[in-house]
Amino acid sequence: MINQYCELENIYQSENIRNMKTLLLVRHSKSDWPENMDDFERPLTELGRKNAPKMAEFLKEKNVHIDAFVTSPAVRAKETCQFFSEVFGKEYSMQEKLYRPSEENFLSVIFDTDNNINSLALFSHNNGISNFANSLSDELVNLPTSGVAAYEIDCEEWSDFEMANKKFLFFYSPKNFNP
Questions:
Q1: Distance between CA 52 and CA 75 in Å, rounded?
Q2: Is 128 helix (H, G, I), strand (E, B) or coil?
Q3: What is the pLDDT of residue 111?
Q4: What are the helix (H) ranges across 63-172?
Q5: By C-alpha distance, which of 150, 152, 154, 134 is closest to 142?
Q6: What is the pTM of this model?
Q7: What is the model's pLDDT at position 18?
Q8: How far apart are CA 151 and CA 143, in angstroms?
Q9: Domains of the chain, each with CATH number or no CATH
């Protein structure tokens, strides 16, 4: 009888534990702007190609778990995301809404995220990504290139993101590994 009670209590407790979502906002790494090149086509600089995988490794060493990567299709964001994708061994997808994004663009991408994904990394550009980050909590961040800000979202479904409580978790920049 006691074992049955313990099992029922465990089931009850597990049903009452809410799943939290985690959102990571990643600004693309340092990019170049060669003469006569369209903004969309701008590639990463040598420093950008060095910092992107270092940031991904840094996060992995900190035991940051990421289920899905979604990036702006702009070359510099896509290249940054590819480095993270390789380090974490995960595929990524592209979303046009993350290029020159507004807060509504970020929300649209988040709302469309599969609920089986508990930790989502979005790769985008300033000023949009810093503005969106600053709309999520009282912690103000200005994401530098290769910067990452993370938030815990108190919701079980991404469609509840906008009204959910959000908690700032961390901010990292290349200064964390390039003193």
A1: 13
A2: helix
A3: 98
A4: 75-88, 103-111, 128-136
A5: 134
A6: 0.89
A7: 52
A8: 14
A9: 17-176 (3.40.50.1240)
Residues 51-83 pLDDT 10s: 999 999 999 999 999 999 999 999 999 999 999
134 Cβ contact partners less than 8 Å away, ≥ 6 residues apart: 140, 141
Give the pLDDT confidence score for residue 71 in this predicted structure.
98
CA angle 129, 89, 124 (to 5 degrees): 10
The amino acid sitting at 112 is D
How many Å apart are CA 48 and CA 42, to the nearest integer?
12
Tokens at 179, concatenated: 């003193």
Q: Name every residue whose Cβ is closer than 8 Å to that of residue 162 and which is 6 or more positions away in sequence.
A: 107
Rounded distance, CA 152 to CA 23, Å?
7
Task: Record the tokens describing residue 119, joined without a space.
Answer: 């930790």
